[in-house]
Automatic annotation (TrEMBL):
One of its GO terms (biological process) is positive regulation of transcription by RNA polymerase I. Residues 255-433 form the Helicase C-terminal domain. This is RNA helicase. GO terms for molecular function: ATP binding; double-stranded RNA binding; hydrolase activity; RNA helicase activity.
Amino acid sequence: GHHKATSPSHNESGRATSDAPTATSSKHAAIQEQRLNLPITKGKDALIREFRENDVTVLLGETGSGKTTQVPQYLLESNLAGNDTIAVTQPRKVAATSLAARVAAEQGVKIGTLVGYSVRFDERCGSDTRIKYMTDGMIVRELMSDPLLSKYSVVIVDEAHERSLRTDLLISNLKVIQRQRNGNGTGENNYSKAKGKEKEKATNPLKIIIMSATLDAEKFAKFFSGAKVIYVQGRQHPVTIYHSLQSQTDYVDSAMRTFFQIHTDQPPGDVLIFLPGQEDIEGLEKSVELFAKQLPQACMEVLICTMYASQAPGQNAKVFNATPPNTRKCILATNIAETSITIPGVKYVIDTGKCKEKRYLARNTGGGFDTLMTRDITKSSAMQRAGRAGREGAGFCFRLYTEDAFKAMKPSAEPEILRCGLASSLLQLKCIDQDLESLDLMDEPDRDSLISALKTLFLLGAINQKKELTPLGREMAAFPLEPVYSRAVVASKELGCTSEVLIIVSVLSASSKLFTDSSEHRDAISESRRKFRHSSGDHLTILNVYKAYQDITKSESKSGRKAWCKKHFLNERALLEAGEIREQLVGTCQRAGIDPKAEGGEGKEEEVIKSLAHGLVANTAFLQPDGSYKQVMGQSVVKIHPSSTLSERKTPTIMYDELVYTNQIYARGVTSINKGFLAGLGALSQRQA
Ligand code: ADP
Ligand code: MG
């Protein structure tokens, strides 16, 4: 029985009535007014009609027209979702949480009640949740426990144009699931036939809505054998675009100069600056702040807001507050603000032309891995970015690249499945008896990355020589972690040090880095961190830092903790996030029958390192006579990153978390390991295979 009772706090239309507080009712009225003014509102009835009539709908519309926030509410209010949940998937965590918060406010409910979200390591949902914003990764994970996604009567695949790996996997699965739940066009439900489950109650039918901001609907429509395509009229005002005359070498500096030109010369209106990532955002934030202090009195104030994936949720919400009088908002954002999140009030856009993109580096490495690289954006992104300036009136876009550079851009991004590591997805698919080779995908991944993923899983013992899932693989898949780290957690069970391994793995899985690393202050940094240092290397050093922070937490106030982190050049956000991740993993361990409290304790450091080495077996290297390291399973020659606690020492064998490509290849997150033990590991995975 997947059906849940309708919550008593909702009336027939599904809208909450009882818990809308009167104190905030004027705010609520203002929000309702904003809702009614969205471009999509005019098409509401027509949309509902289309959704009712079609099992699959492809909905296209300009960013900011109201697709993501309104469509789920229309479905709920018109009772098209029955008593089940509406899932709205997003490629990005921040988009899922922030849009859920907005829709909860529009419905006048607390987040986690009627409207909730579910993202990796963070969930705010209850049994009465009917609209659930979630990452595409979370819903793909849910396939493992609920292969027909029977909780959901509607799945809205949002931001489909981004073609993230999980979105592609979801779309493939939805096609099959819909056939199983809705029947093969005979109107007959063939769930029991398809799954061979005896006398299962007929499942609820599934509706699929694909939403996209760009005009590439055909591919989706074709994939769903000619699904209905609907366009929502946007309300785009003209945007004047300026290109720079020469190419800019320092886009951060150039963005700053452009911002202050706008600020001193142009009429009011907020400025949105697109940057590739957090480091650049933080850098620019500092320099804008400094420079703004030196402005003449007559100038408007500058209010800086930032928006990127790993920032604290509260910080993200700030960007939506109304700009105070005599102030210009300067919003520094990654491509999150390109199509997933619309920030009101923007009249000027500064586009650096750069973004970060995940790339899989399979070449010459044992298992291969993903790395984030700063790259030129595509034409389609450039158009989207410019469009953000014209949502409320005529706007201006300043491109920090030449017109020729624009013309040379690729039309649109390659689907992620063609450029990302596949090991983690492949493992999940194996758990539901699927395979990247047999799945009906919109684009097939290439042979090399497929082979590389199989190799990684085989090395970790997650699949055998016949490419079949092993019991170990199934155990690993229960953890929302990269396979290398879930392998370490599983290994820690036998070795009796799960508590330590969970801490290390949590810190490594956090979206921000624990150690703030700047080459300028390297000596001061290394001095202040000396007391955490463990002779074996970076992994146990992380453990020491985490434990020291836990101790501090017992005695220090919030500001004391903050000062402590600052003094030691540590990123507190990473520690807080790691704490949350650890809690989630403790839960997973308990469900998986692993004692999360099992602590190796003093003198058992070797066991912790061994556990980690089970996962990082492909990321190992031997010392060469010239002082560099040669990969055990690949051909690359690497050096230990200068930020590592081992950078000054020459240990015979190392394992590392990742490789960083600059002018040479650096191994980061390095620990010294026992060579003999490494040989044992190889034998071990062979045996398991
Ligand atoms: P689309 O999906 O078509 O791009 P959305 O539904 O995301 O459009 O956005 C509709 C409107 O909701 C936008 O004007 C946006 O500014 C507003 N909005 C979204 N999130 C928030 C928020 N947290 N606070 C205030 N307004 C928001
Ligand atoms: Mg949207």
